[in-house]
Amino acid sequence: xxxxxxxxxxxxxxxxxxxxxxxxxxxxxxxxxxxxxxxxxxxxxxxxxxxxxxxxxxxxxxxxxxxxxxxxxxxxxxxxxxxxxxxxxxxxxxxxxxxxxxxxxxxxxxxxxxxxxxxxxxxxxxxxxxxxxxxxxxxxxxxxxxxxxxxxxxxxxxxxxxxxxxxxxxxxxxxxxxxxxxxxxxxxxxxxxxxxxxxxxxxxxxxxxxxxxxxxxxxxxxxxxxxxxxxxxxxxxxxxxxxxxxxxxxxxxxxxxxxxxxxxxxxxxxxxxxxxxxxxxxxxxxxxxxxxxxxxxxxxxxxxxxxxxxxxxxxxxxxxxxxxxxxxxxxxxxxxxxxxxxxxxxxxxxxxxxxxxxxxxxxxxxxxxxxxxxxxxxxxxxxxxxxxxxxxxxxxxxxxxxxxxxxxxxxxxxxxxxxxxxxxxxxxxxxxxxxxxxxxxxxxxxxxxxxxxxxxxxxxxxxxxxxxxxxxxxxxxxxxxxxxxxxxxxxxxxxxxxxxxxxxxxxxxxxxxxxxxxxxxxxxxxxxxxxxxxxxxxxxxxxxxxxxxxxxxxxxxxxxxxxxxxxxxxxxxxxxxxxxxxxxxxxxxxxxxxxxxxxxxxxxxxxxxxxxxxxxxxxxxxxxxxxxxxxxxxxxxxxxxxxxxxxxxxxxxxxxxxxxxxxxxxxxxxxxxxxxxxxxxxxxxxxxxxxxxxxxxxxxxxxxxxxxxxxxxxxxxxxxxxxxxxxxxxxxxxxxxxxxxxxxxxxxxxxxxxxxxxxxxxxxxxxxxxxxxxxxxxxxxxxxxxxxxxxxxxxxxxxxxxxxxxxxxxxxxxxxxxxxxxxxxxxxxxxxxxxxxxxxxxxxxxxxxxxxxxxxxxxxxxxxxxxxxxxxxxxxxxxxxxxxxxxxxxxxxxxxxxxx
Amino acid sequence: xxxxxxxxxxxxxxxxxxxxxxxxxxxxxxxxxxxxxxxxxxxxxxxxxxxxxxxxxxxxxxxxxxxxxxxxxxxxxxxxxxxxxxxxxxxxxxxxxxxxxxxxxxxxxxxxxxxxxxxxxxxxxxxxxxxxxxxxxxxxxxxxxxxxxxxxxxxxxxxxxxxxxxxxxxxxxxxxxxxxxxxxxxxxxxxxxxxxxxxxxxxxxxxxxxxxxxxxxxxxxxxxxxxxxxxxxxxxxxxxxxxxxxxxxxxxxxxxxxxxxxxxxxxxxxxxxxxxxxxxxxxxxxxxxxxxxxxxxxxxxxxxxxxxxxxxxxxxxxxxxxxxxxxxxxxxxxxxxxxxxxxxxxxxxxxxxxxxxxxxxxxxxxxxxxxxxxxxxxxxxxxxxxxxxxxxxxxxxxxxxxxxxxxxxxxxxxxxxxxxxxxxxxxxxxxxxxxxxxxxxxxxxxxxxxxxxxxxxxxxxxxxxxxxxxxxxxxxxxxxxxxxxxxxxxxxxxxxxxxxxxxxxxxxxxxxxxxxxxxxxxxxxxxxxxxxxxxxxxxxxxxxxxxxxxxxxxxxxxxxxxxxxxxxxxxxxxxxxxxxxxxxxxxxxxxxxxxx
Lengths: 900, 596
Description:
The complex is a heterodimer. By secondary structure, chain A is α+β, with helices and mostly antiparallel strands. Helix content of chain A is 41%, strand content 9%. In chain A, the strands form 3 sheets. An 8-stranded antiparallel beta sheet of chain A has the order 4-3-2-1-8-7-5-6. A 5-stranded mixed beta sheet of chain A has the order 11-12-14-13-15. In chain A, strands 9-10 form a two-stranded antiparallel sheet. In chain A, β7 and β8 form a beta hairpin. In chain A, α11 (362-383) packs across α12. Chain A is globular and about 75 Å long. Chain B contains 19 helices and 14 strands. At the A-B interface, α10, α11, α24, α28 and α29 of A face α7, α8, α17 and α19 of B.
C-alpha cells in the first residue's frame, strides 16, 4: 500500500502541487465509487485529501470524495487501478467508505486547533478547509479540501449535513437498496412467528406453566412487543390485554428464558403511575395498577415448577439511567477516537490513560452488568428461583441483563446461531428501540444510548474469561459492532417489531427485509472463517462425549453461594409468602437463625437507607392485605451516589467467593470430578461435603441438579464402555460449565483494545496479538480432528478384518463420536493418506495444509515473518490488512516517544 | 516445595511444583510436613490462627524449618495448608502485647517480598509466640544471625546441571565472534582486576589493545567499560553496554574512550553514527556530573547521537512497587482500581522500559545502527534494556535455554547486584539498595509474551517460578552481587542452580502455543502503550481468589498437545495392528461422515 501514501506537505505549497499533479497524471481512469443496486451519487468533490491519523495532517491519501445515498466514499486512483484485481474484503463498503448511518458528528476544523460542530440540516455558507467526521463505531476521519475546485467542498459538506441526518427512518438507504432480500438463515430464530417462540419454549423446558399468547396480534396490546409473546399459562389473552394497561408502555410481563428446574427469566416494566399522584382517582389508579402487578407476579410464582416466589430485580435503581451510559460512551469516544493530532501528544497522554478510562466509567458500566447477570444466573442455578427483571421501560437494561444471564446459563447462546437468536429475541422482538438509542434520525438526539455496544463489550469480557466456551471469536463481535451502523440491514434499524412490519407492508416504499445475520452479504466464506473459535469444537466434543457417556460436566467452580445471602433470600422469599397464606412455610424465627452470620451487614444496609431485604421482609410480615408490597425486590443505592450498585449484591458476591475457596479446598481435594486430574479422578466417586455444619443442601451441584448418586452410577456403568471409545475426549482436562462463573470486578476487566484502538495503526501489535493465538489453536484443533478421522477410518478398516469376531461395539461408538464431526462444521476434506508428513516439526505446514487455513493465511501470512498484522478484527478496512513490510525509518520514528 | 504458593488447592497446582521428599526421619518431624533433603524442623506452635484476608481466620499449627514456614489447619478432612519459604519474608513484626484484648489481636505479622503479608494470631496463654518469633527471625534472616542460607544445605539432586547452561565463550561464538572487528577476550579480566563487577570473558573491538581497555575502564564508572552484549551476525549492528563516562563538572575527556567508541562504530560498516542510549532522565544525568559522572557530549563524541530514555532510578521503582502492593493486597478498591493503579506509576515505568527496548530494537534492526547503552553504573536499567532488546531481536533468547542464558549473561555475569537488590537472608528491610529491578524486567517479558503469545518457548509459569526462587533461597543462582563474589563463595559447587530444577522439569515450563517456525527470525516489536499493557494480576494479585483465572490458557493448550500425542499413538498402534494382518488389500473404505 506504500504507493498510495503520497506524501503531501501542506506547508510547502509549491512541492505540494507538484506531487499532487504527479498523481493526477498517473490517473488514467475517471474515479468512481463502487455502487450497490439502488445507490446513486449525490455529490462529489475531486482532489480531496484524506489524512492519516496522528500525522499532524502531514501525510495521507489523495482522491475523490463522493456522497451517495448510502455512504461517503473516498476513492483513490490506487483503488481504481485495483478495481479488477482485488476484491474488497467487505462487499458493501470499500476501505475508505463510511456509511451515512454511521456518521455521528461533523466538525469543521479551523486554524489554531479550533473546531466547529456543523449543525445537521444547516446550510454551510463559509469556507471549509478541513473536515472531521466522527462515527458511531468510534472511528474518525479527517479530510482536507485544499485542492478542491472552488465551491465543490461546500456542496459536498452540505450534502453530508443533509443526508447523514435523515428526519425519518424511512429515508435510510435500506428502503432504496435494491439488493435482494436475505433468506432466512438456517438455525436462527427470528422470533417473528409463533413457531419460533414455541420452539424456544420447548428448548427451555418451559412448556408447562407458560404458553404462546396471541393477544398482541396486530400490536393491539403493546406496540413495542412482537406479535407473539409468551405469558403464564394461567392467564387468558383477555387478562393480558387488560393487565397490560397497568404497565408502562403497555408491556405486560414477558417470559424470556427458562431453565430445566422450572425457573424462568421474565422481563417486566414498572406499573404506570405518575410520580406525584394528585387526585384520589389517580391514587386509586395506582393501587389498582399495583394490584395488577401483584397478580402478574403471583402468576409467575404459580408457573414455577415448585411454586417458588420469584426474585425481582429493580434495574432502575440497580443500574444508572441510560443517559449516564450515553455520557460515558461519549467520554469513551473522546478518549479513544479523537486523540490529538500529533503522535507526541498522544504518547504524552498515554500515561494518563488508565485514570481517563476510569473517568469515562465505561468499565464500571460493564462491571455492573456482568455482576447483575452473574447474580441472576446464580439465583437461578443455585436457588432455583425465577427472576423478574423490572425496569421502567422494560426495553433497555433488562435486555442486556437478560441476554447476558442467558449467555452465562445457556450454552446454546454461546454458539453463533444461538447468539443470533438471542439478539433477535431479547433485542429485536422484545422491542429495544434501536432507532432511538442509536440516533437513527435527528429527533432522537437526546435519547441516544449505546446499550447494544455495552452489551457487545460485556460479551467480549466473558469471552476473554472463557475463551473456549464460545463458538464465536472477538472478530465476530467486532463485525457485529460495525454492522450495527450499516443501513443495508434492517435488523438494528427500528424501534419495535411493529415499525419494521409497517415499513415492510408500506404501499409506497416497501422495505426489502435484509437481516444482518446473513453474513454472506458482507463477507465471502473464507472471511467468515474468522468468526469461528477454533477451541469451541473441542469444548463441544468434550461435552458431547461426556454426555453420551453419562458423565457430569466438569464444572470447576461447583455451586458457590450455598450460604449466606442466597439461602437468606430463599428463606425470606418463603417466609414472606407465609403472610400470603401459602402452606408449607417455615416460621419466622427459623429463618432468623440463618441470618445471624450476616446480621451485621444487614444493619449496614439499613444505614445505607436503602430498602433492605430485612425491611421488605418485615413489611411483608406486618402486612395484612393479600397483595401489596409483599414481593421481594432488590433495589440498589442510586447509582450516581455510590459506585457500588448494591451492597446486597456485593455481599452476595462475597459469599460466592467464599464458597469457591472452601470448595477448592474441600471438594476438589476429595477427588471429585474436578477440572484438574480429571483423567484420574473421573472414576472415583465424588464425595459430598456438607455445606454447612448445621446442615443444608449440598454445595455441589452437578449438571442441572442431576444427583450425585446417579452420576456415580452412570460412571460405573460406563467404565467398560469408556475403554472402547476411540478418542478420549471426556478424559482431557477441559472445563465444561453449566454456568459460567464470570468475574465481574473492574479489576478483572480489560480494555477492548482490539475494537477501540483499531483505527490507529500505532496500536497494532505487528506480528502478534490474539490472532496468532487463534491461528495456532486452529492448527492444533485441525490436526486433532484429522487424527480423529484417521482413527475412525483405521478402526473401520480393522473392523472389516474382524468381521468374524466383531468388535462391533467399539465401532459403533467410534462412529457415534466421529459423527459429531459433521455437526461441528465440516472442514474441507483432506485425504486421509496424507498424514505421513510430520507437521509438528513445521507448524507453518499445518497452517497451510488445509483449505480454510490457506485462505486464512492471506490474513496472517505465517510464512512471511515480521509482516503479520494484529487486525483481523477490522476486516472492513483492507488497508490495515495488507501485508505490511516493516516500516521504514521515517514512519517508524513516529511511533516512538520522542524524549528530549 | 510448592514455589511459595499458599493455598494448597488444586487450582494452585499451576504454581506448585512437586519435589520428591526424602527426609522424613527427623526426630522433630511430624509425619505430614513435607521436607526437602537438608531441611530440618526448628520450631512449632500449636493453636495458632492464620488470619487469611480472603477466607477469614483459620486455626492450625505453625511449623518453622530452616527453609520454610508451614501452617496446617486443624480442620478435619482437607485442611488448609500454607507453605511459604522464609526467604520471601522481608520483615517480621509482633502485633499486640500483653494488654491486647480481643480475639486474634496478639500475634506475628510477616511482610513478604512477594506481594503479601501473613498474619498469625497466637493465644497469649500458650506463650508460643516468643519462641516462634525468634526461630522465624533466625531462619528468615540467616545472614544477620550468622547462619548459612538454605541453598547451602539443600541436598536435592537434579537430573540436569544448571550451572553448565551458560558458556560465555560459546555464547559469543554463537553470535559469530570472533570477527574482523570483534574478538573474545578471556585474558584481560581473568582475575577480575580491571573490573570487579564484570565477567571474565568479554567481547571487545578487535582494534582495541589491552592498554586501551585499561584506560577506557579507568574513565568509566566502576571500570565498567563498553563491552559487547549482542551483535547481529548479518548486519554487524551491535549492542554494547557500559557505565557512564566520568566526565564530571570539569568536563574531563579521555582520548582512549573516544577512540574506543569510534571503534565500536567502525565495527559496523553500514552505519555512520553510533546511538548512545542513556537510560536515565536527562536531569539525573546532568545531576550525576556533580558526582563525577555524566554523559557523552557532542564535541567529544562527534559521531555519536545521545538519547535519554527517561527511566527512573531504583528508588522510584521500589516506591512504585510498594504502592502497588498497597492497592493489590489484601483487598482492592474496585471502584477506583484504574486510577489507583495509575497512581502507582508501575505500568508507566514498565512502559518506559519497554519503549526504551523497542527503541534499541528499532535502531539495531531497522537502521542497522550499533547502539551503546548505559545508565549510571550500568547494572540496573542497562541490564533491563540490553536483555529486553536482545529478547526481542533474537529468537534464541525466547527459548527456555536461551532465556536462561540471557539471565545468566546480562544479569548475573554483568553484575546486577542481586544480593543488594533482593537482600537474601538479611533483615534490613529499609535498605536503600533494595529494588525490584529484576521483577520489573520479568514483568516486561510477561508483557511482551502477552502481545506475542506464540513467540516464546516457555510460559508464564516459568516467569513466576523464577521470581519465586529469586527470594526463596532454595537455589544459589541469585546469590551475591557479581561473578567475582560467586567465584569466591564457590556458589557453583556449594549450591544448586535454579536451572537444574527448571531443566529437570522443563515440560512444566513449555508454552504449547510456541510456534518455532514463525518465531525464529521474527523481531518482536511490542506496543508500549497503556492501551495494551496490563497489570500482571496472575503474579501481583495471585493471592486474591478473585483473580484466579477460570481457564488458564496454558493448561488448555497443553491438553491439546497431550491429546494430540495420545491420538497419534493410537493411530500408530492401529497402523501396526493393520500391518500385522498382512498387506493391505482392497478394503472398501468406510467413509467417515466428514468426507462421506
